[in-house]
Design goal:
The chain is α+β, with helices and mostly antiparallel strands. The protein folds into 2 domains: 1-21 and 183-443, Super Roll (Bactericidal permeability-increasing protein, domain 1), CATH 3.15.10.40; 24-180, no CATH class. The protein has 7 helices and 24 strands. The chain has helices at residues 26-33, 153-180, 184-194, 274-285, 359-362, 366-379, 385-398; strands at residues 11-22, 37-46, 52-60, 64-69, 71-90, 95-104, 111-123, 129-135, 147-148, 151-152, 198-201, 204-215, 219-222, 224-239, 264-273, 288-290, 293-302, 308-317, 323-337, 342-350, 381-383, 401-404, 407-423, 427-442. Helix 1 runs antiparallel to helix 2 (153-180). The two termini are 38 Å apart.
């Protein structure tokens, strides 16, 4: 029989929900929205003043995405070729010709321009990633300077084309990152599933009541990003009918710097009925003789001032005059030994109620009194390890289970720690906290 915990003993557990996602779906979006080729080869494109014209071809390599820490970096190389010619009108015949001309990248390797943008990723309140992207200045390692009348034609045409691609990359990343990285449906599924009470024994329920939720900072490598939903839940064992839990909606997201492993803390009560404790104590100490005192049955019951009453049936026969057969009442303070999982009696002494003093106590035989008290103090201990192990095992099974399709709760119980010990009308109650770890796996 398990004793229910008081509300004050309920503690918060930390449950980690690892989130792993890939930015690979962002690549085809970028490739589709950022032009791969641009060209003007069939005729010359004139400048606004119509002083010169140019032909050009611009091609880019595939876009490379790479996560480093919290930053997303997109890079590509643009290859270009261009020919610039002065617009000249021949005198007398008034004929327009494009001459002289200067070119680069035609009939030789195309020239290069390096494009790079940097995005900082973070979580927003709507459970999505948001990106803040900025473009680096384009780099022209083997630039082509085609100049007429102090006007750099490459700066006039090629640089805007490159910058246009930079701007398109920036817009596409910032617009599509939230849509491709929405984790709210998963978080809502976990949040809802954890709120359902889980029966771990007849009329005994493991209850998790989510209290708060946050997201750990994200990190990434290559195209993969990882983070974790950090759930804080009130976790307890409830005895009785299935608890009625009011469902809470998923709150807005906030971020939490801590990324420590999940800590599961499950308070529960172990109650050892007085009848069972009496049987265990009688089996280990009673029905045997200690010098002149024979101890028979031992019975436990609530005492006074939070102490435990120990009633011992003794048969004392030191002489014809000094003899007694009947009950002797003592009281002691129950204490729990976590190392051996046993309950012992501390400060064991005879009950001082004059109405309940027995003839044995009134006999002037201090040796007999001290002998009985010392022997009982040595033997008045009994194990509750089986009871603790039983519910520990049930909790361990309850935290390894599916929560919903594709959502699995995994955890373990590492230790059981006593918090307090007290006396109930039905038995001795030990308030215990099972500690371990838990995480939710999404498939």
């Amino acid at each position: 029989m398990f004793a229910p915990f008081l509300a004050a003993a309920v503690e918060l557990s930390t449950i980690i929900v690892p989130i792993r996602a890939s930015l690979a779906p962002l690549l085809p979006v970028l490739e589709a929205q950022v032009p791969k080729k641009q060209a003007k080869l069939d005729a010359y494109e004139l400048d606004p003043q119509k002083k010169f014209g140019m032909k050009y071809r611009v091609e880019r390599d595939p876009i490379a995405l790479n996560m480093i820490g919290t930053g997303l970096h997109a890079t590509t190389t643009v290859h270009y070729a261009m020919e610039g010619c002065r617009r000249t009108v021949k005198p007398f015949i008034n004929q327009e010709v494009m001459w002289p001309c200067v070119s680069c990248g035609f009939g030789e390797p195309m020239r290069d321009a390096y494009i790079a943008i940097d995005s900082t990723l973070s979580w927003d309140a709507n459970w999505r990633l948001q990106s803040r992207t900025r473009a680096r200045p384009a780099e022209f390692p083997n630039g082509c300077r085609v100049t007429f009348a102090a006007v750099n034609i490459a700066d006039w045409k090629i640089a805007p084309l490159v910058n246009q691609q930079l701007q398109q990359l920036t817009k596409t990343i910032d617009a599509n990152t939230p849509r491709l990285t929405d984790v709210r449906p998963r978080a809502a599924q976990v949040w809802s599933s954890l709120q359902a009470p889980q029966e771990i024994a007849p009329r005994t329920w493991l209850v998790m009541e989510p209290a708060e939720v946050a997201m750990a900072p994200l990190t990434g490598s290559g195209l993969n990003i990882s983070s974790a939903v950090i759930l804080r839940a009130r976790t307890r064992v409830v005895v009785g009918d299935r608890p009625i839990v009011a469902a809470k909606p998923l709150p807005p997201l906030r971020t939490m710097q801590s990324t420590a492993a999940g800590g599961m803390r499950v308070p529960f009560g172990v109650e050892l009925p007085y009848a069972e404790a009496s049987r265990l104590l009688t089996a280990s100490y009673g029905r045997r003789k200690y010098q002149d005192i024979t101890v028979d049955a031992i019975r436990l019951a609530p005492g006074t001032n939070g102490k435990l009453a120990v009633e011992v049936d003794v048969d004392y026969r030191a002489s014809v005059l000094r003899k007694y057969r009947g009950p002797v009442l003592l009281e002691g303070t129950p204490v729990f030994d976590p190392a051996t999982r046993t309950i012992a009696l501390k400060d064991l002494d005879y009950a001082l109620d004059p109405k309940r003093r027995s003839l044995f106590l009134r006999m002037a035989d201090h040796f007999a009194h001290d002998n009985l008290r010392a022997r009982l103090a040595e033997g008045a201990r009994w194990s509750v390890a089986p009871q603790i192990a039983a519910i520990r095992g049930e909790i361990a099974k309850a935290i390894v289970r599916p929560l919903a399709p594709g959502v699995f709760l995994r955890g373990r119980v590492d230790d059981v720690t006593p918090v307090a010990i007290g006396l109930h009308p039905e038995g001795i109650a030990i308030d215990v906290v099972a500690t371990g770890s838990a995480e939710v796996e999404l498939r």
